[in-house]
Amino acid sequence: MPINAKLIEDHNEQQATVHRRKLDFIKADLADADAIIQKLAAFNIAIPSWALGTGGTRFGRFSGGGEPRNLEEKIEDVGLLHALNRSSGAISLHIPWDIPENYADIKSLAAQYQLKFDAVNSNTFQDQPGQALSYKFGSLHHVDAKVRQQAIEHNIEVIRHGVELGSKALTVWLADGSSFPGQLNFRKAFQRTLESLKEIYRALPADWNLLIEYKAFEPSFYSTTVGDWGQSFTLANKLGPQAYTLVDLGHHLANANIEQIVALLLMEGKLGGFHFNDSKYADDDLTAGSIKPYQLFLIFNELVEGMDARGLDHATGLGWMIDASHNLKDPLEDLLQSVEAIMIAYAQALVVDRHALVQAQEQNDVVKCQEILQQAFRTDVRPLVAEARLIAGGALDPIGLFRTSEVRKSLIGRRGAKTVATGL
Ligand code: LRH
Ligand code: MN
């Protein structure tokens, strides 16, 4: 592991004076700074196993080298991220891209890096070598019961892998849909999806959640059977108490008010978790907070308000995951930026003067409401996030230390310049 405690200590010593000055500045204006720092230190975001290498599009992929060649190296890379920011303490696996050869070895390797296994993801959007029946025309909504059964059994197998690893949730994202009017009977497709999910739900261990991820379009370009929050919410309600919706920020039509969707799903007790990323046009899977940082803040503003209203613990109450793809940036630097942006949005939401906001809302003082929110959004909370890292044993400047330690150079040295990671 190119990053060790001594390196982090020396790095933090060099940064200590500047950090302390900035921290004292923001603490002077905040009554509950220490409580906020504790909340930030307890907050962890799971890293997707499929986003540790260079992503690409159908037009091309430009690998940067030193990418993980197997599950062990993916765990090592998430371990490195967690050593730097102490906020990436879990990995989310995608099956069959990451089937462990030996559960015990993989679990002890993850434990070495203080990593847990977050939700496991099924994959019925690709045909695997030797697969009997194709998912070309869908999986859980397929007109052929044999194809649906094949997809159901795959999801149950994914649960089995997850149980071995100590995961507590299955994420189901379905590419199922249609690309031409008339191709699909929407009612039958939805009912078949529900009946198929019921069989998967029956296979869930009692302490597991089923997270139903919706997406407006791609790879289907006319309809997607689980295409929006309403369809996912309806399925989760019909399935039972262990079924929830999963909100991938990139899976909405343009200008959707995602923070309002989040507030309502949370109010209904059916918000299960997130796939954080950002986008300008479609499911671009860009770095979280890189295009619409105000939207990310507004989402966390609703999360803090709604989770406190339900008495939910911020760190454990929902599934916090990143789902991004890195076409241009170093994958590890990109993930460090995403975690930082999410922590900043959470910290900004924690410094909102909630009492004053409620008062202004009850008085329809529209200007005051906006001033209160933007006061928080315009507050530089980075020293609070850095202090949370420091007290958790991380680096004050993760990307700075990643670069000065030439981590990528040593990974390329060990793994080669042309390695390509499995995944998207
Ligand atoms: C679909 C999705 C889903 C994953 C896949 C890698 O767009 O967001 O969460 O299975 O990306
Ligand atoms: Mn996703």
List the topology elements:
Layout: H1 5-27, H2 33-42, E1 47-48, E2 56-57, E3 60-61, H3 71-85, E4 90-92, H4 103-112, E5 116-117, E6 120-121, H5 145-165, E7 169-173, E8 177-178, H6 186-202, E9 209-213, E10 223-224, H7 229-239, E11 243-248, H8 258-267, E12 271-276, H9 293-310, E13 319-322, H10 331-350, H11 354-362, H12 366-377, H13 382-391, H14 398-404, H15 407-415
Parallel strand pairs: 1-4, 4-5, 6-7, 7-9, 9-11, 11-12, 12-13
Antiparallel strand pairs: 2-3, 8-10
The structure holds 6-deoxy-beta-L-fructofuranose (LRH) and manganese (II) ion.
Residues 173, 213, 248, 275, 323 line the site of manganese (II) ion.
SSE arrangement, N to C: HHEEEHEHEEHEEHEEHEHEHEHHHHHH
**What fraction of the residues are assigned to beta strands by DSSP?**
5-15%
Instruction: For the record, give the distance between the C-alpha atoms at the N and C termini, rounded to a whole number.
Output: 25 Å
- Please state the average pLDDT score: 96
> Which small molecules are bound?
6-deoxy-beta-L-fructofuranose, manganese (II) ion
How can the largest sheet be summarized? 6 strands, parallel
Which strand order spans the largest sheet, edge to edge or round the barrel? 6-7-9-11-12-13
Number of strands: 13
